[in-house]
Queue: 3 jobs
Job 1
Amino acid sequence: MEAEKIISTYFANVPAEIFERAAKIRLLITDIDGVMTDGGIIYDNDEQEYKKYQVKDGLIVHHLRRNKLMVGAITGRESPVVVNRCEELKFDFHYHGVKNKGKKFQEVLETLELEVGEVAYIGDDLIDLPILARVGLALCPSDALEYIKPYCHYVSRFAGGNGVFREVGDLILHAQGFLVPIIEKLTQKEDEQN
């Protein structure tokens, strides 16, 4: 089983406890700035805002949702370009301009009837701590502030905007037994797929 060997090698340094937590996840929530982007904001002379996203992050959303995992975003800034990206990726929900993320998180739990242990969250700054300190699987980019990292179960090998979301998505899919079958299906010869 080539795919199994490749994925096992890729995740060889991830502690078993992280996979145990990831196996229980039903919802992955992410911050945007500093997680799905590098945290930079570019404005042009007409005050248009630009952000750069990692396309690999976006691709895994389809596979998460296809395997009945929900994906959402809670971000502290209001930004049309972020709304557009969340819509393009078909997030189950996305909240913008949220100053009290802990309160919004509680609303999400109640609305979706989830337990904290069923939720993973990726954040990188102070505003994310009320969620990171509660969820079943708390994660952050490698370049998150140093005083945020102790509140996370796992620190990604990637910096914000450089594949953090993808690594987390892959990790959750692998922990739940979905990633290897996805790879195997995509690598079958066309006549074997029918």
Note: The chain has nine helices and eight strands.
Job 2
Amino acid sequence: MITSMKSMLDHASENNYAVMAVNCVSMEILRAIIDAAEEQHSPIIVNISPRQFKAHAPLELIVPMYTSYAASASVPIALNLDHGQSYEDITKALRLGFTSVMFDGSTLPFEKNIEYTRIIRSLSREYACSLEAELGHVGVAAEGDDETNALYTDVDEAVQFIQQTQVDCLAVAIGTAHGSYPKGKKPKIDFNRLKELKEALKIPLVLHGGSGAGEENIRRAVQLGINKINVCTDLFNHGREALRTALTETPHIDLMDLQHVSQLAMKDYIKNYIAMIGSSNRYDYDVSKAKALD
């Protein structure tokens, strides 16, 4: 069933677990996501970013596939625009059937981020969709942005931001970054800051840049209040390595069979991640409330 993220993440926040948000650019990834969620009896979020749909998966083509498959699923599925920055991209996603959007104003001055987030909030409410925003800036792992404390979310600013925007969830910068970290490195997460943010805001919090963060970091982040975790790089790498292994072991494998190998490997990865963040067997929250925003 297709829902927004609001009731899904509110339930996660109230019950101290997280929902996986998986970036998707193909049928194989979509089937891996939804099949894993159904087998784990878990809500899940399907993500796609403007960079991804402009480079590889045009929204007009991929959204009908998302909605047709998600509508028949037995668990709650939210369709979320990840890192929307332009009004055009966000309105297009809403018009085509997304149930949630993220407005990423994290590189804007604080007041501008509030101003633009409020505009997108009004727009999202016209479509009965939930809204995620970002304060602080989750940068790029390869550039060392995870170690730049100046980019971290300030607690006092976050309180003001939520009061003025009333967004449904907030992506916070606490020491993770997008993409792959240098070999052997694990990010150092500011758990004290996370605890302070959760206690001050009392809303669902989002972790971007979860790939490569390590199981111990992820589990602790969930314990302290993270309720949505975006996963892209690790999953894509996992699917690629399954393809590499299959081609090495069976060089003449049929393309369709090769794609299926990757799909099954990604499904198993997602199932394990769902279990790690505590969202297994969480599908039975009141989904009647998930179909409309409070």
Note: The chain is about 50% helix and 15% strand.
Job 3
Amino acid sequence: MPPHIVVFGSLNMDLVIQAPRHPRPGETLTGGPFRTIPGGKGANQAVAAARMGGQVTMIGAVGADGFGDELIANLAAAGVDTSRIDRSPEATGLALITVSESGENTIVLAPGANGTVSARTAWENEDVIAAADALLLQLEVPLSAVLAAVQIAGRHRVPVILNPAPARPLPVELLHHVSYLIPNEHEAALLAGLPTGAGEEATRAAAALREMGVGQVVVTLGERGALVYDVPGTSESAWHVASFPVQAVDTTAAGDAFLAAFAVALTEGKPPAEAARWGCAAGALACTVLGAQPSLPTRAAVEEMMHKEPVVLLTSLAPAGKMRNVCMLRETHG
């Protein structure tokens, strides 16, 4: 039986334009081509988890418009249960995305119907949250709704995986309900009130977040992989999980691919460091295709990439974030 993953969050239509670089303030650039692509961090994670083999239910809202129709149809085509998506009088959420030739992106959100997701939405879906093997959340819907959802999960002992993006200060009450907090290094530093930096600073940010009450912290580091902090069953404070080198085309949804693959692997019983390796493979593959949901890889593609390097280097980090030793983790696939 595949793991049942409930995603509570946003659905957007992405309006994507490619440009030679990102414009400076007051500057107009000629770009192209332009595409409309289904997106939204919540919907991205739902599609990605379904492609990884999870049984997925999406909770959120779209408008009663053509974009809403398209987003629901796209989720259903990926095998996601869309019966818990509300139709709002507000327009469907939009994301304006500029992708540079280097593959980096800038995003401006118009929340639309996502702003109508509320605590009531969460409580109306208590039954499906209670039956989940894991609850995935992001911060593109109102914080009050996210807090209600994690409270419901805590009430029913459902593990909570939170992607704190877009980053904002979070109440301790919310953090105490989070089983796995998965920010990128910039989000981790902001949440912890620390400067952004590589290696040592990411470890310090993770340690600070653990002290704030989070269950475990996994910091995504882009092309450098991921930092898994405070690994259960070991004496180590953190592991650096290496990523896979790819030629990046568009980094949109790479983080969502990581979250989904991590969630599916974790709910299948894999330990956090191994689940992070699955996430790194999925995130790397997502960078090789333009657009959010079109880039999300299948389980077969992720497994193929991981089989290319069956023995994985995991670097142990001392509490201050400095390398201490290296060990080997041998991947197995059923």
Note: The chain has one domain: 4-11+39-69+78-90+115-330.
